[in-house]
Design a protein that fits this description.
By secondary structure, the chain is an alpha/beta fold. The chain has helices at residues 46-54, 95-100, 114-126, 142-154, 172-185, 225-232, and strands at residues 5-17, 20-31, 35-39, 61-66, 78-81, 160-164, 190-194, 207-212, 214-219, 243-244, 255-256. The chain has a domain at 5-81 and 158-256: P-loop containing nucleotide triphosphate hydrolases (Rossmann fold), CATH 3.40.50.300. Helices cover 25% and strands 26% of the residues. The protein has a six-stranded mixed sheet with strand order 5-6-7-3-8-9, with helices on both faces. It has a three-stranded antiparallel sheet with strand order 2-1-4, covered by helices on one side. A two-stranded antiparallel sheet has the order 10-11. It starts with a strand and ends with a strand. Mean pLDDT is 81; it is low at 236-257.
Length: 257
């Protein structure tokens, strides 16, 4: 039963500049083995909330704890997949070397132990990319790169996995397969994603964290058009991944999955 809170945010406020609040009076708890998606309009504070959880920013007021610790002290238990990795396409780095970057905190620059390499290989196998180990990272497709970055995040054996725009570079046809990967990972770790795309809200995600200066949390199945309009301030098309259409319904009918 999901009862242990791993993230606790109380009365949090944050401003980049004085008198220009980005987040106001945020109260949020996130449970062990929960999966949630942070959504909201551009400039609403999604990325800021993520950076606060990572300890890259400090609250202007209020508190945030991860596993009962400060975000900085909890980093060893957090796996983070950025939206993209800034590497020069001409820089010669292969997939296994990118994945091994996730072990840097356990050693020192450029030298990895046998254990590090074993852990990296297990992570690549879990993401079904072990056959790409010697391929140049710059040669990969968007979906393959995302798998590499998740594998890198998994090498620290995280209890919490943070994903920033994980489907941004994935073809629509591959997204359902990606959700299945996250669903399997969620059996052993908590997963928190950030997305500007409400289409990411699938039946495999427990709740939606709506961020637009303030924060509201809704169960996935309770998200409706009125909530979305209130959050974004305008009408937004919502793609629900718990519905499917097939060849028998070409006239527009869909079945509930």
């Amino acid at each position: 039963m999901k009862t242990n809170n791993i993230i606790e945010i109380k009365d949090l406020n944050f401003s980049y500049e004085k008198n220009m609040p980005v987040l106001e009076n945020v109260n949020l708890t996130f449970c062990e083995l929960e999966s949630a998606c942070i959504v909201g309009p551009n400039g609403g504070g999604k990325s800021t909330l993520l950076y606060l959880i990572l300890g890259l920013l400090k609250p202007t007021s209020g508190s945030i704890t991860i596993f009962g610790k400060s975000p900085i002290d909890a980093r060893s238990q957090i796996g983070y997949m950025p939206q993209y990795i800034q590497l020069d396409n001409q820089f010669p780095i292969c997939v296994s070397e990118v994945v091994l970057m996730g072990r840097l905190r356990n050693g020192f620059w450029g030298r990895y132990s046998k254990k590090d390499r074993e852990v990296a290989m297990v992570a690549m196998s879990e993401m079904s990319i072990e056959h790409l180990a010697r391929r140049q990272f710059s040669e990969l497709s968007g979906g393959q790169r995302q798998r590499v970055l998740i594998a890198r995040a998994l090498t620290c054996s995280p209890k919490l996995l943070l994903l920033d725009e994980p489907t941004a570079n994935i073809d629509p046809g591959m997204q359902e397969q990606f959700y299945e990967i996250l669903y399997k990972l969620n059996q052993r770790m908590s997963i928190l994603t950030v997305s500007h795309d409400l289409g990411f809200v699938s039946d495999k995600i427990n709740s939606v964290i709506c961020v637009n200066r303030g924060v509201q949390v809704h169960p996935t199945n309770a998200l409706d058009g009125n909530m979305i309009t209130d959050m974004y301030g305008y009408d937004v098309n919502l793609i629900r991944h718990d519905y499917r259409c097939d060849h028998k319904h070409k006239q527009g009918g869909c079945d509930h999955a």
